């Protein structure tokens, strides 16, 4: 992305995929790929530099739009993000105010979930992942029910471990104090060559 700066202000945003007319001069699209930055700057065109300092993971935060400005002292055009807003970690519930304002759907009551928070969404995902893993060995349970064939102890141990880990993961998510704490639970780091996250992983059959 490029910007045309005239009299110290950005007057046009440019993709660099077509030519441009500045005053009485016409320039081909080639100036965006062949010309040097200094040559483009000389006619008022600058490559936009994006400052990602405030950019956060969109799984956990809602980022702002980028604000573009010409820095006359640095002779550069910069794009910056504003302060990101953490996504709600707890469910939003319908209130008496929603009811009085007519915003309560006919099939909902005060106290019902209006919008799910991250905790609800993440716990549902953990449950789904655990169910997927357990489904791989469900046939042992079916066989025992139909044929009275004993389930191997290793399979029973594995299935119990999946449920135990599922419960501990859900507890960790429930106990997270805010969105930042949830993000930390799911953030992978590498120590001594081992990559892991505080939340851990559901066990799988080796």
Give a brief description:
This protein is an alpha+beta fold and 206 residues long. It has 6 helices and 13 strands.
Describe this structure in words.
With 206 residues, the protein is an alpha+beta fold. It has 3 domains: 2-85, no CATH class; 87-116, no CATH class; 117-206. The chain has 6 helices and 13 strands. It has helices at 37-42, 96-100, 118-135, 138-147, 153-175, 179-186; strands at residues 2-6, 9-14, 20-22, 25-27, 45-51, 61-62, 66-71, 76-81, 85-86, 92-93, 113-115, 189-191, 194-196. Strands 2-1-5-8-7 form a 5-stranded mixed β-sheet. It has a two-stranded antiparallel sheet with strand order 3-4. Strand 7 and strand 8 form a beta hairpin. Helix 3 (118-135) packs antiparallel against helix 5 (153-175). The chain is elongated, with a radius of gyration of 28 Å.
Question: Secondary-structure blueprint of this entry?
Answer:
Layout lengths: L1 E5 L2 E6 L5 E3 L2 E3 L9 H6 L2 E7 L9 E2 L3 E6 L4 E6 L3 E2 L5 E2 L2 H5 L12 E3 L2 H18 L2 H10 L5 H23 L3 H8 L2 E3 L2 E3 L10
- Oligomerization state: single chain
Mean pLDDT: 97
The shape, in one word, is elongated
First-last Cα distance: 48 Å
Catalogue the unreliable spans: none
Number of domains: 3
Q: What's the count of strands?
A: 13
If helices are DSSP runs of H or I spanning 4 or more residues, what is the number of helices? Answer: 6
Order of helices and strands: EEEEHEEEEEEHEHHHHEE
Largest sheet: 5 strands, mixed
Proportion of residues in β-strands: 15-25%
Overall structural class, as computed from helix and strand content, comes to: alpha+beta
Radius of gyration: 28 Å
Cross-sheet strand order for the largest sheet: 2-1-5-8-7
State the helical fraction. 25-40%
